[in-house]
From TrEMBL:
Residues 1-13 have a biased composition (Basic and acidic residues). This is Rieske-like 2Fe-2S protein. Its cofactor is Fe cation. One of its GO terms (molecular function) is oxidoreductase activity, acting on paired donors, with incorporation or reduction of molecular oxygen. The keyword Iron applies. Pfam families: Rieske (PF00355), Ring_hydroxyl_A (PF00848). Residues 1-24 are annotated as: Disordered. It comes from Actinocorallia herbida. InterPro entries: Rieske_2Fe-2S, Rieske_2Fe-2S_sf, Ring_hydroxy_dOase_asu_C_dom, Rng_hydr_dOase-A. The keyword Metal-binding applies. Gene3D superfamilies: Naphthalene 1,2-dioxygenase Alpha Subunit, Chain A, domain 1 (3.90.380.10), Rieske [2Fe-2S] iron-sulphur domain (2.102.10.10).
Length: 463
């Protein structure tokens, strides 16, 4: 889908976050933000706060429900669940997608689970055999003669729909039929990601794990990159300036409207620490997670290295020239080679409330984090490795590879395992009696604060 809404033609960089909420918002919710940079610890484990999210956030916000390649053919479906509400995401005969509430209109039996295909274009209740077309309209009531006519009026027993739209290779849903349009809600994050070509990407793999960590705390770890030196020391490949307190690469953090946030590289300046070894960092990224940087990228980079200093900007420019040449020869649609695109390589976009994309070259890493098992202390953490394939290449139907333990070395690379280890430690620490709030850096963690400010506005709405 192309962003054509006139609202989105304006300058992306002008869509900055509005700042901290006032007393009119804070008075309506428990444990509101204490200013811009202090987050009450109870927000991460309070049952009261969790129940308010279930009532005021999840039923009223657009959320990424599926990759489009999960449902390539008419009749294909995948289930999406959020805080006890189940939807069936179903590909229609005309290629469009609908989101149907997953409950029989007779006696509430779930009509589908996991993923699959509805044979013959019919959704059949496994209890009494009622049938619906894949568009949700009723096609057969078994034993209709036993019902009063008013009880089985077609309009009353049609499956109920949620809002559903597609963008960027994803299916998005909103349980609120009066919600604003998808592209309005995703502005400006969708615009930034679209110019990086995410709409052309498809999944290389998709995995998940279950973590003993609140969904917000889990995703916030990826809103900033300055944890790399401590959490992922193998990735810190600077040849000089290694004794600096922080990774001094020029990283810019931007909180946007609608709760979205971004970090990316800034304009190159002298005095930002040493130069990273580009090729070494690329190899470690590929071997550590098989996402963002892939084996095919390493092959291209190695082919032009020769005896060059691989931390030299001249080598990096040569490597990028070779990468674009490879894409052209392989028939892989390439992102535009503009400063706006290049700055995002290795950066991060958070799409409020719970989806992140980290574009790099013609690839992206993606995370989705959801509450798990009606428990504020647990989350379901999903990971995708996305890439751009040659035009016309059929990859078949995407399926979840599996649910793997966070310490499974056969299915998680070193980089995600390092991150997962931190997340559960954070959840244990957030309950320490000595801790009433966490405090954020104005420079490094502004997008975390912005996410919480937007969350409070959502929770206060209608209260």
């Amino acid at each position: 889908m192309t962003v054509t809404d006139p609202r989105h033609a304006r300058d992306i960089e002008s869509a900055l976050a509005p700042g901290p909420n006032g007393p009119e918002v804070n008075a309506k919710i428990p444990f509101p933000m204490n200013g811009w940079l202090r987050v009450p610890a109870d927000r991460y484990h309070s049952r009261e706060f969790f129940e308010l999210e279930k009532e005021k956030l999840w039923p009223h916000v657009w959320q990424m429900a599926a990759r489009e390649e999960e449902i390539p053919h008419p009749g294909d479906f995948v289930e999406y669940e959020i805080v006890g509400q189940s939807l069936l995401i179903v590909r229609q005969q005309d290629g469009s997608v609908k989101a149907l509430h997953n409950a029989c209109r007779h006696r509430a039996t779930e009509l589908g689970s996991g993923c699959g295909r509805f044979p013959g274009g019919q959704i059949v209740c496994p209890f009494h055999g009622w049938r619906w077309k894949i568009d949700g309209s009723i096609s057969h009531v078994f034993g209709r003669e036993g019902f009063d006519a008013e009880t089985v009026r077609p309009e009353d027993i049609a499956l109920r729909e949620a809002r559903c739209d597609t963008w960027g290779g994803h299916v998005w849903v909103n349980l609120d039929l009066d919600a604003p349009p998808l592209l309005e809600a995703l502005f400006p994050a969708a615009n930034i990601l679209q110019r990086n070509g995410v709409q052309r990407m498809r999944a290389k793999w998709w995995k998940e794990t279950i973590l003993n960590c609140n969904w917000k705390l889990a995703q916030e770890a990826f809103f900033e990159g300055w944890h790399v030196k401590q959490t992922h020391p193998q990735l810190y490949t600077y040849k000089d300036g290694a004794d600096s307190e922080t990774n001094l690469q020029n990283t810019v953090y931007t909180p946007f409207v609608n709760g979205h946030g971004r970090f990316q590289s800034g304009d190159a300046k002298e005095g930002y620490g040493g130069k990273p070894d580009f090729l070494q960092a690329a190899r470690l990224n590929w071997s550590g997670q098989d996402a963002m940087t892939l084996e095919r990228d390493i092959t291209v980079f190695e082919s032009v290295a020769g005896g060059m200093d691989t931390s030299d900007p001249a080598y990096i420019a040569k490597a990028f020239d070779a990468l674009y040449d490879f894409w052209e020869g392989a028939g892989i649609p390439a992102p535009d080679r503009t400063p706006e695109v290049l700055k995002m390589w290795g950066g991060d976009i958070h799409l409020f409330p719970n989806y992140l994309m980290l574009p790099m070259y013609a690839n992206s890493l993606a995370y989705r984090v959801r509450p798990y098992n009606d428990d504020p202390d647990w989350c379901r953490f999903e990971v995708w490795s996305l890439t751009t394939y040659p035009e016309g290449e059929d990859r078949g139907r995407l399926e979840l590879s599996g649910r793997f333990d966070k310490d499974d070395t056969d299915n998680w690379g070193l980089i995600p395992r390092q991150d997962f280890a931190n997340l559960e430690r954070m959840q244990r620490g957030i309950k320490n009696r000595s801790l009433k709030e966490i405090r954020l850096s104005e420079k490094w963690e502004a997008t975390i604060a912005n996410m919480h400010q937007e969350l409070d506005r959502r929770l206060a709405a209608g209260s």
